[in-house]
């Protein structure tokens, strides 16, 4: 990728020497799970041939692995770093920042008039009996807010999942289709309005236990989804449209779910046209607790190989790019940088889904590869 920095210290968590990090690298043999711990890199393929197997058996103790060397000396560049999940299903939660969703509706009604927006906000506050910023989805206050919004003609399908009892949970990408740090990411070639969605992603084992977190870019096509919610599949699931990485940071004494709850995610976009956009999303403003989103994801479904769950974003770019009033959309060559101090940096360059390398390595290919390496034997799976 143009300008990608292969130096691990540039994109690992600030405290990477104290972190337990799990990822996948491309080797001559095939996809290989690795662990970064105490400043060293370990090949875990013989102990756990897939990240899914590793996390399903994770108890806090690292399995025995072949030490490769120091993190600083390991070559992660040249597209070697893969998405850190393999057999896990990739799920996503949408419209999880209710304040943002409600505010967008208010701003649309106010048509840019800040005083009018505050008046609408105050009227809703009086009728609901609470500040809309404090309303919990599915609560009695949320039901009153819904009734007030409907009465004022402000209701939308997005507010239903923003403050209603049911979260929006959808499948973002097929197994093994996500790309990693440094890879090209794709937007549909027939999309004229699209954007990145920088997010924290929880990684859960087959029992639904959250075992760690990583960063994600839930590439979104606003024109497709805006035309109809029934086009969500086309808006979200395209070749190279899901990026994850750089590593999964496992929960331990130095990193917990509370760090996820308080994380700040920064987004930087740099275009070949010298365009630059910066934004920030604060997990502290999320409306539903991450574990509540996990609960809803598994309430009527099982994921025996585990799953990754995008937690949503507060950020929606509106900064004009080409002309006043046209807002933001991607251009080929954009560099997208998603960063958070405790999780590191996920950086990718934009192309079209047609131009991105096609996804050709599926589940059957992985099984054949692991069998050929002797990693699916009973002895290797212990």
- End-to-end span in angstroms? 38 Å
- The Rg value, from CA coordinates, equals 21 Å
Structural class category: alpha+beta
Number of beta strands = 18
* Mean of residue pLDDT values: 89
* Major sheet description: 11 strands, mixed
Q: Fraction of residues in helices?
A: 10-25%
Oligomer, anyone?
Answer: single chain
Number of helices: 10
Element pattern in H and E: EEEHEEEHHHHEEEEEEHHEHEEHEEEH
Keywords for this entry:
27% strand; 11-stranded mixed β-sheet; 5-stranded mixed β-sheet; single chain; 382 residues
Overview of the molecule:
The chain has 382 residues and is of the alpha+beta class. Helices cover 23% and strands 27% of the residues. It contains ten helices and 18 strands. The chain has helices spanning 51-56, 98-110, 114-128, 140-151, 157-163, 222-227, 232-236, 257-261, 290-298, 363-372; strands at 21-26, 31-37, 40-43, 66-70, 81-82, 89-94, 168-173, 184-187, 194-195, 198-204, 210-218, 220-221, 242-250, 264-270, 276-282, 307-310, 335-340, 344-352. Strands 1, 2, 3, 4, 5, 6, 7, 10, 11, 13 and 16 form an eleven-stranded mixed β-sheet that branches. A five-stranded mixed β-sheet has the order 8-18-17-14-15, with no helix packed on it. Strand 14 and strand 15 (276-282) form a beta hairpin. Helix 2 packs across helix 3 (114-128). The radius of gyration is 21 Å and the shape is globular. It starts with 20 loop residues before the first strand and ends in a 10-residue tail after the last helix. The model is unreliable at 378-382 (pLDDT under 50).
